[in-house]
Amino acid sequence: MAEAQLDPRRPLGRPYRTLFAASTISNLGDGIGLVAYPWLASAVTRDPLLVSLIIVAQRLPWLLFSLPAGVIADRFERRRIMVLANTARAVLTAVVAISVLAIGDRLPGPDELDGIEAALDTNVTGYLVVLVATLLLGVAEVLYDNTAQTIMPSLVDEDQLERANGRLWSTEQVMNTLLGPALGAALLVATFALPFGVDAVTFALSAFLISRLPRRVKHVQEAPAPSTQRASMRTEIAEGLRWLWKHPLLKPLAITLGLLNALATMTSAAFVLFAQEVLRTEPIEFALVETGGAAGGILAGWVAADVSRKLGQGPSLWATLLVSGFTSIAIGLASNWLFVWAMFAVSMFFAVLWNVITVSLRQTIIPDHLLGRVNSVYRFFAWGMMPFGAILGGVLVAVGDAMSSRAFGLRLPWLVGGVLQIALLAYAAPRLTTARIEESRAAAIEAP
After folding, report:
1. Predicted TM-score (pTM) of this structure
2. pLDDT for residue 362
3. What CA–CA distance (Å, rounded) separates 297 from 356?
4. CATH number belonging to the domain at 8-220+233-446, selected among 1.10.12.10, 1.20.1740.10, 3.20.20.140, 1.20.1250.20
């Protein structure tokens, strides 16, 4: 029995399988939204700045709400938080579906947007619906995602974390960027409202499955007992911030990922316009472009742990920065969506490799009673930079358009972003080394 318990390939357990099923279903909905929301945004406005503001609204909650979300994850039962967050997402998405039905007669059909440039006037009502819904869904996403990462160490043992995370992300990629977008495109061809209705159902099903996690087994965190001595939220946030800021590895890791995510968001802020006007994609082709990320992510989810061991964790992180930069430049020069598909596949392989290494690392070295707060501070830096990247992306499109042409403007964020991602290696390489990672793991094991 002792040998079996030391085998990292042993079954991951029923609680993990329940979370896996819930995540799979909700990520199918996310994949549907990956096509439906940008296409809807491009139907209500062709202004690249307004389109980029929708991405800002999606990512702004990570800047404004991630720190309180970490305290909430440490204070309350994590299973219940996840149920409430996905229930809220189901309701909000249903409202979007109803709203789109109400304004549908004032929108061009999904198949009428191929190749349209800046000729359409902004539909103010439709734009506000998309903007507000995106902002509120972002708040729920912050609460759900931060809690989901903090609950994982209570579902599986430490030596299973990389495998558990890898399997989860591999399936998330299948749903989020392969099956979901394909289904979203098919639904979109029928009517604008249908993808959002189906998306709402997936969130509701996910919430139901999470609610089925057992309440009182050792793998599931129970709600902490009420305490009159509980510190204020500001004090608890400060505790998490101090812990991360003093850590010799997590601090540069958070800064690096924040800058990397800002640059990645800069490139994707007006991607729907780039895909329509430069790559000349229709809804189905737009969905297929996104499946490139799925192909790379699925493969990485299954082999990331092995690649990390063979390459070394430090070099694996460095490779992510280099590959991300070069693929961004290549996309900025491309005119064929199949080539962009291939670049997405390569880039996403290394992005998932990065995630498998760094998330498993955080789950290992951060004390459980601080995990929610420190995780949220980390993601505050890592994801909170995205709104700034989205704004900068919209500005670069406008500047490039004014300087040269609309096509050049849509290419410019990819070219600038790629160069800056490669340059980021100068900061990251000496700080994110395999030796420093192993030292951090050893220190966490020795800590009382």
Report:
1. 0.71
2. 85
3. 11
4. 1.20.1250.20
